[in-house]
């Protein structure tokens, strides 16, 4: 039995010596790839940021839902202000960029308000309407948004 154990140990040692060089070579290759990619990626990102035009990469459709046509909307239109429904969670700066990109006018001021969804019932099932966020956009004198004309 001792002879068989000696043979088994030799086979195990052969397997161990075979596995380690391959594993260490793979580990070295991975480490080299990480180092080379770590060195290359910041340079690529910096050049991409320097060369890009922010208007081209900004998605205005993800911010503005629709223009709100209402009695209040037509009233504030006389003062060069416009009402829009926007996605909840958007900031005033994002709304300014979206208006500038979509309509080609730069807003002076953006004011926002959130309306909590009303409670509703259908039979025994209770629920709520979705939350709405509105944006009141003020433009310079002489600037107009064509979506509202003729309403």
N→C terminal distance: 99 Å
The CATH architecture classification of the largest domain is 2-Layer Sandwich
**Structural domains: how many:** 2
CATH class of the largest domain, anyone?
Alpha Beta
Structural class: alpha+beta
How much is the average pLDDT?
78
Description:
This protein is of the alpha+beta class. It folds into two domains: 51 residues; 90 residues, Alpha-Beta Plaits, CATH 3.30.70. The strands form two sheets. Strands 1-2-6-3 form a four-stranded antiparallel beta sheet, with helices on both faces. A two-stranded antiparallel sheet has the order 4-5. It is elongated and about 100 Å long.
Topology:
Layout: H1 2-51, H2 54-57, E1 64-67, H3 71-77, E2 81-86, H4 92-103, E3 109-115, E4 119-122, E5 125-128, E6 132-138
Which features characterize this protein?
151 residues, alpha+beta, Alpha-Beta Plaits, 2 domains, 4-stranded antiparallel sheet, two-stranded antiparallel sheet, 6 strands
């Amino acid at each position: 039995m001792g002879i068989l154990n000696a043979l088994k140990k030799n086979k195990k040692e052969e397997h161990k010596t075979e596995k380690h060089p391959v594993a260490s070579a793979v580990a070295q290759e991975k480490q080299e790839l990480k180092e080379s990619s770590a060195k290359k990626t910041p340079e690529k990102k910096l050049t991409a940021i320097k060369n890009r035009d922010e208007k081209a990469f900004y998605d205005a459709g993800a911010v503005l839902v629709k223009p709100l046509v209402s009695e209040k909307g037509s009233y504030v239109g006389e003062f060069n202000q416009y009402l829009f429904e926007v996605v909840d969670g958007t900031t005033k700066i994002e709304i300014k960029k979206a208006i500038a990109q979509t309509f080609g006018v730069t807003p002076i001021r953006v004011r926002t308000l959130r309306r909590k969804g009303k409670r509703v019932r259908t039979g025994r099932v209770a629920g709520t309407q979705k939350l709405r966020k509105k944006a009141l956009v003020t433009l310079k004198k002489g600037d107009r948004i064509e979506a509202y004309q003729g309403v």
